[in-house]
């Protein structure tokens, strides 16, 4: 019975991490890194934790991209007062660089804006998705490694 309880707690922990990381990649402002560190300090599997955090955050970022994608170009003109000519210049500048730009979606505060902007500008979804996945994964790998190293340092 105790093993079943532990398994349920572990699964609940991973689901909580997934949803926390998903929400952190949207407009909800909080630190998914703190949740990941808590999981690692709590003895959760580092590889599984990194994979769950990355997938949750990536899917959250892609939902922000989708929100931008369903937006209308007319909204950009009306609310942001950006002309067709200026919008065309921006679109031309990002074309071919979507993946590199999407790598930056992990950044605090502006990462969500970048994801929505890539959607609004109709950036290629495949390249954007891969760039975003790589950027978010690297962020969690670095953070997870730093957490594990700090645990070793303070336990030594």
Describe the structure.
The model has no long low-confidence stretch (mean pLDDT 87). Helix 3 (46-70) packs across helix 7 and helix 3 (46-70) runs antiparallel to helix 8. This protein is mainly alpha-helical. The chain contains 8 helices and no strands. The two termini are 35 Å apart. The chain has one domain (2-155).
Name the overall outline: elongated
Identify low-pLDDT runs. none
Question: Average pLDDT, to the nearest integer?
Answer: 87
> What is the number of E strands?
0
Task: Tally the helices.
Answer: 8
Element string (H = helix, E = strand): HHHHHHHH
How are the elements arranged and paired?
Blueprint: H1 2-24, H2 32-41, H3 46-70, H4 73-80, H5 84-94, H6 98-102, H7 110-120, H8 125-155
Helix pairs in contact: 1-2, 1-3, 2-3, 2-8, 3-7, 3-8
Short description:
α2 packs across α8 and α3 packs antiparallel against α8. By secondary structure, the protein is mainly alpha-helical.
């Amino acid at each position: 019975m105790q093993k079943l309880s532990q398994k349920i707690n572990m699964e609940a922990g991973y689901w909580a991490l997934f949803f926390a990381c998903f929400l952190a990649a949207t407009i909800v402002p909080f630190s998914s890194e703190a949740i990941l560190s808590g999981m690692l300090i709590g003895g959760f599997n580092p590889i599984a934790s990194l994979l769950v955090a990355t997938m949750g955050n990536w899917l959250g970022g892609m939902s922000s991209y989708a929100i931008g994608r369903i937006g209308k170009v007319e909204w950009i003109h009306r609310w942001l007062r950006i002309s067709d000519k200026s919008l065309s210049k921006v679109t031309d500048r990002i074309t071919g660089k979507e993946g590199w730009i999407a790598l930056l979606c992990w950044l605090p505060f502006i990462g969500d804006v970048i994801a929505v902007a890539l959607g609004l500008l109709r950036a290629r979804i495949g390249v954007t998705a891969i760039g975003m996945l790589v950027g978010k994964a690297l962020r969690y790998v670095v953070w997870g490694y730093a957490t594990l190293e700090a645990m070793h340092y303070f336990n030594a």
